[in-house]
Amino acid sequence: MTETLEKYFVPEPSKYPIFGSIALLMFGSGAVMWLHEVGAGPWVFFLGVAVLIYMLFGWFGQVVRESETGKYGRQVDRSFRWSMGWFIFSEVMFFAAFFGALFYARVFSVPMLGSGDNEALLWPGFAAAWPTAGPQPADAFTPMGAWGIPALNTLILLSSGATVTWAHYGLLKGARGQFKLGLLLTVLLGATFLGFQIYEYLHAYADLNLRLDSGIYGSTFFMLTGFHGLHVTIGAIMLTVMLGRAIAGHFTPEHHFAFEAAAWYWHFVDVVWLLLFVVVYWL
Amino acid sequence: MSAVIPDHLHDHHHPAPGGLMRWITTTNHKDIGTMYLVFSFIMFLSGGVMALTIRAELFQPGLQVVQPEFFNQLTTMHGLVMVFGAIMPAFVGFANWQIPLMIGASDMAFARMNNWSFWLLPPAAMLLIGSFFVPGGATAAGWTLYAPLSVQMGMGMDLAIFAVHIMGISSIMGAINIVVTILNMRAPGMTMMKMPLFCWTWLITAYLLIAVMPVLAGAVTMILTDRHFGTSFFNAAGGGDPVMFQHIFWFFGHPEVYIMILPAFGIVSQIIPAFARKPLFGYASMVYATASIAILSFVVWAHHMFTTGMPVAGQLFFMYATMLIAVPTGVKVFNWVATMWRGALSFEPPMLWATGFIFVFTMGGFTGLICAIAPIDIQVQDTYYVVAHFHYVLVAGSLFALFAGAYYWLPKWTGVMPSETLGRLHFWCSIVFFNITFFPMHFLGLAGMPRRIPDYALQFADFNAMASVGAFGFGLSQLIFIAVAVRCARGIGQRATARPWDGAEGLEWTVPSPAPHHTFETAPVLR
């Protein structure tokens, strides 16, 4: 039978999607209740998170079992490749919204607040220079410098991109030890990155008086780096799962797209960081 | 080509759960497509009831039926429900049913994820509709959720934000599924340029969805953090700008407009050739026109914002870019007309709806051009002229195409021909009442009646009374469709053959009617 005529794997009916839907319903309604100080809010919220974790474990576990029992042919493999690429594109557009907000604030809204009628009538004496918390009377803050922890973190993430590629070469040539060691190093570098980032946030709040509510600088700084940190966390979890599967003997030199998908995601997180480093920290 | 699958090939399937569990756990694209269509019709009726309450209030000047606060909630929720609950899911329902059948695939590429894409919608709808019943009521900031109004509202606004997030997740997963299905699951011999045009339009729509739904997610996330966590994205005192919300929103919002109309173009492009009994005129130009519309949709967003203050160079750029979209859209309209030219035309219900679509949608397109002209837009911004314009493209465009598609493919879905008498009645009532409702709104808008206001000056009374009568007529006409659909689903009416329309072309007509639960498990080979 030729490759194009092999039967495409269509899964059996599954209970997992409805669990995911119930989880997000509880997550959303719990969050809203929590924000409005309704007593049950946090409980509903965390129950939703728990159901979501159960669903992810069950669903991905089933996918792993299907993959390891050889149910996925080459056409299914291509589907996974396409879908991961498009998923990463959607993530790029999500970050684009926040980068767009940063550019808009720096190029349009802050200069406009410090010029023309705005300056003459509304905010006299507002020096429209970046970084700023806007013309409101606010506590002074110190912006985050680029050449301390952020530069170190850049080095760490770039190295982790190299180690994950080294691991991939190991897998391709059948050197399982190199594969596992490379994965372990990548996960450890990712964890180090996150540790530094937490330290940096503590430093910002404790020493620099730089907070989420420090005007537009604080908003863009914490939302951009925070969402990036969240994505590093997700990527590190993906790579940890891949490490566990590697130890369990999964993946062959020909059949290992799950690992590649995690690596693609890791490189995406890496590129976002480079942009962040340049436009949030440096310039 | 071997399209019909012999029964013995089905043996390896485990017995599917019955009853409600069948629908909750299903991985079958036809079941999921049906759920999308039923859900979207329920949401269409819910949004319709809101619209009729609005029209009841506007029947006369003065306040009779609802309080102004509730009126604002109704206009907001009518928009959100119709856009995210009715029109978009209905097109995804069509995609689920038709794309695998049209390209000869056994199912969607990710059948389990397909189920989740659908089952995220009921929770989102619960959050959205439920927000009417929380303290402060539903969000009343308009469906565009403009800051700073959306930063100030109560609990209903937060529920709307999470509902939008969940619907966005659903749309992105659905769109990835559709893109991958079309790119990777085509039967051997089905090259891209042999694909039915409905698949092409959905491929491009899905690309737009993946590109812009995350941007909307970003926008509402910024509102959420501005509301509760002290950020200053849309707060001028903190260095932000409420106008920035409009930029981010409409960067999503304008491609969103084409997300709601491109699949409609696809449906009409399937139906016109079938009932003109001629191949589609200019297939390749249709594909390129669709792609051009999609690309241009990313560079026109600020035409929604001419009155917010913008440099003249910006106004001119967005004005000309917008008018450029008329070129590929014109290509499409001329191609449809050229397809009908000297065809052996017949006007069964699908063709009635499709030709009605061309007439009325084109009028909406022309008023769109008028709105695109910056100096005129400054006059008609936020008047009933805009309301008339976008209802001509969304109701007479998207909705009429959805009905055209439903009448066209109901025989394939149910095995029963939809009643021709009821179908004609549905169409003629709809198009007459539609125009009675929305045509006077052009005059109201040009005369200066503002939208989203529950009361109005006396000189607007006659046209408003007319529009309200038309709206109730239009709403009641839609009940005819329930009769049509229920009759088909219950098997009342003439049996459909595998190819009930003699001019219809495509793989979906090679399988029996109703389409068996599993089709094309072994791909057909096209030559």
Automatic annotation (TrEMBL), chain A:
Cellular localization per UniProt: Cell membrane; Membrane
Coiled coil: none
Domain named Heme-copper oxidase subunit III family profile: residues: 4-283
Membrane spanning residue stretches: 16-36, 42-64, 85-105, 147-169, 181-199, 219-243, 264-282
Provenance organism: Pseudothauera rhizosphaerae
Entry's family note: Belongs to the cytochrome c oxidase subunit 3 family.
GO cellular component assignments: plasma membrane
Enzyme class: translocase
GO biological process: aerobic electron transport chain
Alphabetized GO MF terms: cytochrome-c oxidase activity
PROSITE patterns: COX3
Main subcellular location: membrane
Keywords for the protein's UniProt record, in alphabetical order: Membrane, Translocase, Transmembrane, Transmembrane helix
EC number: 7.1.1.9
The protein's name: cytochrome-c oxidase
Membrane topology according to the record: Multi-pass membrane protein
From TrEMBL, chain B:
Domain of life the protein comes from: Bacteria
Principal location listed in the UniProt entry: membrane
EC number: 7.1.1.9
Free-text function comment from the UniProt entry: Cytochrome c oxidase is the component of the respiratory chain that catalyzes the reduction of oxygen to water. Subunits 1-3 form the functional core of the enzyme complex. CO I is the catalytic subunit of the enzyme. Electrons originating in cytochrome c are transferred via the copper A center of subunit 2 and heme A of subunit 1 to the bimetallic center formed by heme A3 and copper B.
Taxon lineage: Bacteria, Pseudomonadati, Pseudomonadota, Betaproteobacteria, Rhodocyclales
Chain ranges of the Cytochrome oxidase subunit I profile domain: 23-527
Protein name: Cytochrome c oxidase subunit 1
Membrane topology (UniProt): Multi-pass membrane protein
Gene coding for it: ctaD
Alphabetical list of Pfam families matching this protein: COX1
Key words of the record: Cell membrane, Copper, Electron transport, Heme, Iron, Membrane, Metal-binding, Oxidoreductase, Respiratory chain, Translocase, Transmembrane, Transmembrane helix, Transport
Keyword rRNA-binding: no
Range of residues in the leader sequence: none
GO MF term (any one): oxidoreductase activity
Pathway, per record: Energy metabolism; oxidative phosphorylation
Record family assignment: Belongs to the heme-copper respiratory oxidase family.
Transmembrane spans: 36-56, 76-97, 118-147, 159-185, 197-224, 244-268, 280-304, 316-338, 350-376, 388-410, 422-443, 463-486
Cited CDD domains: Cyt_c_Oxidase_I (cd01663)
Species this protein is from: Pseudothauera rhizosphaerae
